[in-house]
């Protein structure tokens, strides 16, 4: 792989030893209760495979572009998403 690994930077202020680094989305207070609740709710369904018809994604794309979602079958949705990914998701 040609992607370099992320190396965390260090935050420092001369004369201080209690600097908290917040530029990397770190939170010294921990996750908010709403995030914890969302995680717990999502964990309730990890034993199930997700829907393969991509209905929510197709509906969201249709809403953004004010168009009826393309195809109603999982195969047609998968094909369209595969073409989009190949067209825009290549190296560089």
Radius of gyration: 21 Å
Strand content: under 5%
Report mean pLDDT, rounded to a whole number: 81
Number of helices in the DSSP assignment: 3
Considering DSSP H and I runs of 4 or more, what fraction of the residues is helical? Answer: 25-40%
Strand count, sense and barrel status of the largest sheet are:
none
Give the structure's gist in a few sentences.
This protein is an all-alpha fold and 92 residues long.
Write the layout of secondary structure elements.
Blueprint: H1 33-43, H2 55-64, H3 74-88
Characterise this structure.
This protein is mostly helical. Helix content is 39%, strand content 0%. The chain is elongated. The two termini are 13 Å apart.
Q: Main traits of this protein?
A:
92 residues, mainly alpha, 3 helices
């Amino acid at each position: 792989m040609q992607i370099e690994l992320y190396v965390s930077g260090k935050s420092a202020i001369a004369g201080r030893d209690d600097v908290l680094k917040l530029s990397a989305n770190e939170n010294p207070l921990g996750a908010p209760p709403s995030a914890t609740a969302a995680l717990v709710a999502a964990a309730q369904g990890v034993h199930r495979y997700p829907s393969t018809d991509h209905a929510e994604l197709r509906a969201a794309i249709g809403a953004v572009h004010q168009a009826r979602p393309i195809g109603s079958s999982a195969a047609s949705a998968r094909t369209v998403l595969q073409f989009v990914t190949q067209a825009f998701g290549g190296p560089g």
